[in-house]
Amino acid sequence: MTVSIEPISGCYIHLTVDGVDYRVYFESAGEGIPLLLGHTAGSDGRQYRHLLNDPEVTDRFQCIAFDLPYHGKSLPPTGVEWWAREYNMTKERMIAFPNALADALGLEQPIYLGSSMGGHLAIDLAINHPDRYQATIAVEGALRSAVEYVDVGMEGIRREFDNPNVSRNSIGAAMLLNMSPYSPEGAVREVQWEYMCGGPGIFAGDLFYYYYDHDVSPEEAASIDTERCMLYLLTGEYDPNTSPAETQQVSDLVPGSKFVPMPRLGHFPLTENYPEFRQHLMPILAEIAAKREGEI
Amino acid sequence: MSTEPIVDVAAVARKGMDDPEFSRETRFLDGRLKIDLAGHPTVLEFDDGALVGTSTDVPDEDCKIVVRGDEEQWTNLLEPIPKPFYQCLQTTAVKHGLYMSTTNETFAYLPALNRLVVLMREARSGEGR
């Protein structure tokens, strides 16, 4: 019998945010430049399994894929009556968790890569914490999510995604709208599976940040100093929530940023079609590593 | 308006009851599902997940789920490899104006609707014959 163990380790860490103790799960692989990996709304760090198994990445980067509280293996916090309140993710909390994790692990000038709401966060981190991160990589990020979805409102979002009449299978089914017809079906189904596994009301609550609390003005975007924190942007052709045209707006406003449109990819490129995605990612990681080495 | 619908939805649905995914995802469905292809409506009537009848003229208010689009919307949606933002019903609705009801059943049976579109694509391209 052949035994195959992936070079990924997982563990729990306790982080204190706003006076609350959170038991947070993360998986890590590789050594070198710290690379924090933030997942999409309503999903978890399993989305990064392909990257964590990519030796070309892990040879040079210490990759850390974390589950935000209430996601994946990061349970809701004890000591808080979370069941008695409606869950909504905010920009403040989105920013607080990767910062707290980086501090707790003693990471120096990490790179942050996030997808979807994590991609939006990459922009918010570059604006608000440029000296904490060497660079941020926004996968499917924009100033704001597409207006057609924003206009639905939280009531409409909860009717579709946090409705006792509707099972979480439908959240997985809805993710089809974000994906590319070129993506392998097995990978598409994996994205959907991860969405079907989410906690009750969590995907809808995450969308509060994704559609409303993340709202970057042109002035804020223009204030990003890419000498202090480089901003990379990658967006798939089939992403209706943040289209390449919407990401281009960010790139146009941020001097020195780099935008890579990704033909034939959708909103979940890291899971949907990693072999295709990595072709766009690897030159960025090589540039980051070269800059890091040049500064040592 | 073309004289013939671009896909025979009733035939696709009848055949779909032998499709493991479509038949599973329509389980327990009670009521009518209306698919209007550019002015050619087809109404599928379900009873506890069984497809018990089809018709062509039932008012929207008597249907649990309604999907309605014009020829351009359906033609693009049913391409084997759709161009961006026609990749599924919901993208075509949000970005190109296809109508989808917002009833609980519409959201609950979205997995079935998505599968039906795949079966319609296959029927249109000849794969499903």
Strand content of chain A: 15-25%
Give me the count of strands of chain A: 8
Number of strands of chain B: 5
Radius of gyration of chain B: 13 Å
Distance between the termini of chain B: 25 Å
Broad shape of chain B: globular
Detail the poorly predicted runs of chain A: none
**What count of helical segments of chain B does DSSP give?**
6
Describe the model.
The complex is a heterodimer of chains A (296) and B (129). By secondary structure, chain A is an alpha/beta fold. Chain A is built from 13 helices and eight strands. Chain A has helices spanning 49-52, 55-58, 91-104, 117-128, 147-150, 153-161, 169-174, 185-196, 202-213, 218-222, 244-253, 269-272, 274-295; strands at 9-17, 20-29, 33-38, 61-66, 111-115, 135-139, 230-236, 258-262. In chain A, strands 1-2-4-3-5-6-7-8 form an eight-stranded mixed sheet, with helices on both faces. In chain A, a hairpin with a 2-residue loop joins strand 1 and strand 2. The longest helix of chain A is centred in the C-terminal third of the chain and has 22 residues, at 274-295. Chain A starts with 8 loop residues before the first strand and ends with a helix. Chain B has a five-stranded mixed sheet with strand order 3-2-1-4-5. By secondary structure, chain B is α+β, with helices and mostly antiparallel strands. Chain B has helices at residues 9-16, 20-25, 71-77, 89-96, 104-108, 110-125; strands at 31-37, 40-47, 50-55, 65-69, 99-100. In chain B, helix 1 packs across helix 6 (110-125). Chain B is globular and about 35 Å long.
Write the layout of secondary structure elements.
The complex is a heterodimer of chains A (296) and B (129).
Chain A: E1 9-17, E2 20-29, E3 33-38, H1 49-52, H2 55-58, E4 61-66, H3 91-104, E5 111-115, H4 117-128, E6 135-139, H5 147-150, H6 153-161, H7 169-174, H8 185-196, H9 202-213, H10 218-222, E7 230-236, H11 244-253, E8 258-262, H12 269-272, H13 274-295
Parallel strand pairs in A: 3-4, 3-5, 5-6, 6-7, 7-8
Antiparallel strand pairs in A: 1-2, 2-4
Chain B: H1 9-16, H2 20-25, E1 31-37, E2 40-47, E3 50-55, E4 65-69, H3 71-77, H4 89-96, E5 99-100, H5 104-108, H6 110-125
Parallel strand pairs in B: 1-4
Antiparallel strand pairs in B: 1-2, 2-3, 4-5
Helix pairs in contact in B: 1-6
